[in-house]
Task: structure prediction
Amino acid sequence: MSAISYIPDQPAAKVHSSLQRSLTVMDDAHQCAVLWFGEIMRRHLFRDLGCSSINQYAMGKLGFSKSRSDDFIRLARQLENLPAVREAVANGELGYTKAREIVSVATPETQEPWLEAAKGTRKELILEVKKAKRAARVDPGQGELLPSSPPVVAPRELPVRFQMDLTPEQEARRSALVERLHKLGGVPNDRAELMLEALAALVETKELQNQKFPRGHFSSRPPVQIHVHENEETGPMTVQTDAGERELSRAESERMRCDASVCSHGGRNTTTIPPRVRREVLARDKHQCQAPGCGRTRFLEVHHILARRQGGTNDPENLMTLCGSCHRLWHKQNGGSAIELSEKSLVGHKLT
Result:
């Protein structure tokens, strides 16, 4: 079905039917867009498209606003956790607007009854969702219930497993942060609580920045420094982690060489980018990652647009600020060649 082209001055019945058909087409397009978006996110295809995160892809490549990006990401993630609902959307049995209502309350255990409830009108479904939310006294985004007609099933009190893969450099950074926190004292030993406190502190800091402080007010120095060992002139670099010494990839090694403090035995320490120039570049870029759609303000690094080995200099015009993720992706995709985007904040890494 395709939308009817707009023609003014039609009879009321014609205008009404044309609008209904267009709304149906729009609903179908929305649900297809969410499924395609979910494919990009699930398979990490955004990396093949030059983006280090799904947020950067949504805002940089698709031109989404932050709110629209968050909406698509939320819905795509919820559909991944609700395979029956996702299949109904993919088969055209469940429309976009009804899917949005269901994912706000359904769980893997309760998705089938909710699909039954969705067979009625959208108005009836909305009423059932509201009843379930009121009965549970939960936030609208945290429902765990069935529609009012079936019995309410309490969520099972099972632990949620949170797992992630870290690069050796990321693990070294995590370990250094934890060690620094423990030196400050009063830090919980439980890893889950430690992660939650760290996230809470990050949110509080962002709120303070948004409400009271101008951008760039805080120090441009990274929160931790990690030591990267270079065994040979062109050999692999390694970092020491809790799991032992781990080797860095060629792309990671190239990234480290962009913006670092180099410590050689018996010699004086040097920096790959003069501190004054680095501060100037960070200030020019407003202490934000310059990759399209990113804008992160932590773990910033300064990248060379034209690599030094290809004649690139430390002139500010050849430098730009990237976050660690975008910088890592850039070197990975370009093999550490002449595409070093302007590293401004890799000062937290030391080559030894």
